[in-house]
Write a structure and sequence with these properties.
Belongs to the beta sliding clamp family. The protein is of the alpha+beta class and 379 residues long. Helix content is 18%, strand content 44%. Strands 14-11-12-13-26-25-24-18-22 form a nine-stranded antiparallel β-sheet.
Length: 379
């Protein structure tokens, strides 16, 4: 029996394929996870991919994309070949149908493709079970996208403590705090939701999955709904749904590592500081750069015996407190500075062995970053 027949604009199909392909499992021994799930429904075409930890779904609705749906049906096809062949077709409109079981036929002008698929029954479905009590709230897309970029970069890349490879979403009353730390750096951002989120709770989402979500979100004024299930979380905006597994284990309480007192505070132009850190990091052996603050100037330097050395100086807007000299990981500092949403950066020196605190200029900002100094013979 023939199933699945739809006509779609090539541009719309490519856009959807690019989105869902971010979740395709590259090395999976299971063919269904290396594929893209296609389902034609009464008024929409659904594309979905999953690596079990991350699932991305795009629903192209008939009215919005000028689809012509003739027959419903579903199949899973190899992601690699589906992506490549659709990109290379020259026609603006593509017809997709199945004229025999598990064979997807793709027609575009004079091009005719038959692509072998597998049954969709084993494709992992999205989890629609709600937590008890149900937890749902909405966040501005631009705010969520920026917050993920600022915080997720500080998550650990090591699996020694799996929970630290994630970002903590700590919600209570009307606020959501994102926090991540790899033991050397820490990033935190608080988002005010404007709605009561109920009893305080915390979930931990893999940073890798959040990076993929951030790439898909538009930096606009629309909103994303966040729904927490028992062991998963789902983000929904327009035609896009992203579902992630949650990490097991208790995310450590890190409030005690945030210094409350400081010995020095300086303000510096963000663009000047970022340029200087990027410059001296070119020669940074083991990624170590030295910062030396004196009245009116921040001196930066690095050296590698086999290559050479580099120095740079940046004028300070203001400085209060004592002069200091510390060494830090240059690449980590670059990531932090890029995440500061302010024209000027505030640095707080809290001691040679205590974290350097990096903040936006505004005292009331919801962002905070820490980086732990590296002990060297001259700092």
């Amino acid at each position: 029996m023939m199933t699945l027949l739809v006509q779609i604009k090539k541009a719309s199909l490519i856009h959807a394929l690019q989105h869902v392909s971010r979740a395709v499992s590259v090395n999976s021994p299971t063919s269904v996870l290396a594929g893209i799930y296609l389902e034609v429904k009464q008024d929409e075409l659904v594309l979905m991919a999953s690596d079990a930890s991350l699932t991305i779904k795009v629903a192209l609705r008939e009215a919005a994309h000028a689809l012509r749906i003739h027959r419903a049906g579903r199949i899973v096809v190899p992601a690699r070949y589906m992506n490549e062949i659709i990109r290379k077709l020259s026609a603006d409109v593509i017809t997709i149908d199945m004229d025999e079981p598990l064979i997807l036929r793709i027609t575009a002008a004079d091009s005719h493709v038959r692509l072998c698929g597998v049954g969709p029954e084993l494709f992992p479905p999205m989890d629609h079970r709600e937590a008890h009590p149900p937890i749902k709230f909405r966040i501005n897309n631009g705010v969520l996208k920026a917050s993920i970029a600022q915080v997720a970069a500080s998550a650990s890349l090591s699996d020694m403590r799996p929970v630290l490879t994630g970002v903590s979403f700590d919600y209570s009353q009307q606020s959501l705090k994102l926090m991540a730390s790899d033991g050397i750096r820490l990033a935190s951002r608080t988002i005010w939701t404007g709605t009561n989120l109920g009893p305080a709770a915390r979930i931990v989402i893999p940073a890798r999955n959040l990076h993929e979500l951030s790439k898909l979100l538009k930096n606009d004024h629309d909103e994303t709904e966040i729904a927490v299930m028992n062991n998963r979380v789902r983000f929904t905006t327009h035609e896009l749904q992203v579902e992630s597994a949650l990490l097991d284990g208790a995310f450590p309480s890190l409030s005690h590592v945030i210094p409350r007192d400081y010995l020095s505070e300086l303000f510096i132009e963000k663009t000047l500081l970022l340029r200087a850190v990027e410059c001296v990091s070119v020669f940074a052996g083991d990624r170590i750069i030295k910062l030396e603050a004196t009245e009116g100037t921040l001196a930066l330097s690095s050296r590698t015996a086999e290559i050479g050395d580099v120095q740079d100086r940046v004028p300070l807007r203001t400085m209060k407190g004592e002069a200091f000299r510390i060494s830090v990981n240059g690449r980590f500092l670059i990531d932090i500075i890029r995440g500061v949403d302010s024209e000027r950066v505030r640095l707080r020196f809290t001691g040679k062995t205590s974290p350097l605190v990096i903040l936006p200029e505004d005292e009331a900002s919801p962002m905070l970053f820490l980086i732990t100094p590296i002990r060297t013979h001259d700092s």
